[in-house]
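Task 17 of the worksheet. Students: predict the tertiary structure of the chain below and write it out as structure tokens. Keep your answer in the requested format; marks are given for formatting as well as content.
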Amino acid sequence: MSQFDSPKNTPEVIEHCFPVCSADEVLQQVQTADAKVIVTVTSLIPMINEVLKDLSSSLCVIVVDADNERPGLSATWTTWSEMVNSSEIQQKWPEVSPEAIAFLPCSSGTTSERKMVARTHKATVAGVAMTPLLEHDGVNVVISNLLCHAAAQSFTLLGLTSGANCLILPSRDPHKLIEVLTVLEPLSVIWLCPSPYFSDLNPLVKTDDLKSLRSIVCVGCSFAPAAVEEFLDKMPDRDAITFTCGFGMTEASPIIIPQKNNLDPTVLGYPLPNTELKVVGADGKNLGPGQAGELYIRGPQVMKCYYNNEEATTEAFDGEWFKSGDIVYYDETGMFHLVGRSKELIKCNGRSVSPLDLEIALTSHPTVREAGVIGVLDDITVEKTIAFVVPKLGMEIDIEELERFVSSEVAPHKTLSQIIVIEALPRNSTGKIIKRVLKERYNLMLAEERISARPSYR
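Model answer:
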């Protein structure tokens, strides 16, 4: 679902909503963006009605997939065919300033509330022009992800600029993806949010299904190296496949570091052209090679501001430099390495623990489909590491055996305090784990005495 804000004599600004958002969440986005038009589909009509009844002003609603009989549509609503055939459509586009806002995607909201990111036309074009994700013109691109976030917007534009044939799957259905790959010839690319997609694909896919596949592009969230390795081993020619992952964020339109054929999520790579990066310590001073600190970004693809949120914008910038919140370091060659998110790092006995290291270890176990690790305070103000894990289909997780396995894979100070088995992890539209929801779930489980708080000794 998209919302359009169209001030006088200016082109539309597009904001995408995740289709499983609640009416309250959509209402908040509509009000923050001062939306004038909602473009939606028939399956979301009941939710849109809930949004509209709480608005003081009326909005134009366009329903894309409604037929001419207009079942269930208000008399004031418009179908897509009615709109495109209308004589009132503006035939001449107004001039657009490069600094004008083009998109209002929402930030991930994994550790705090989501914020609207103001991406200008300049930032959008720069992000697309600098991102070499499609190596061939006219390829078949299978997009197995929802087109409701910054990465999706950019990849769609990449497809248009390269003349690609883009096939958008309606859901993250591994059976449908395999079916499509078997009929696409001769060259195809799949673009997906990896976790836990590869774990779902591996039991189903056969080598013959992948004959046309030449490239995999993963953006939006981290991946489980063991699951990707298992998938790539099924390729008819492992050396012929290009596996590309992109490190970035909504605020950077969205890629800042692409990395090819690397299966270590902690190794990021080198920045894109025209992109400046620096690592800053807690004292505000620039750090050198091998020293971990916060990643600052400067470049034409960086957002203008957080829309209608001056306080968050001021906090996010140091002059022209955007403060990413990621803890990284770079080596002597200038290659960047990821430590973790500053808000997610867990302090155990005076040492920092990255949840990513533990999540990689957990998902390398043959019974674990996906994993999310959080830090929580115990009674003596010491953080302990809590892992939520989801078993692979048809498998059971032996918690004690998994604890021993993880202990053998990581440094002693990174040992897990507790493992909790659940059915699914909460994820946002790009596939990132929403850690704040995991913390809320943990506290609720404690309050309801469904789990006990184990001691956080090492």
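Marker's comment: Confidence is low (pLDDT under 50) at residues 1-10. The first strand starts at residue 2 and ends at 5.
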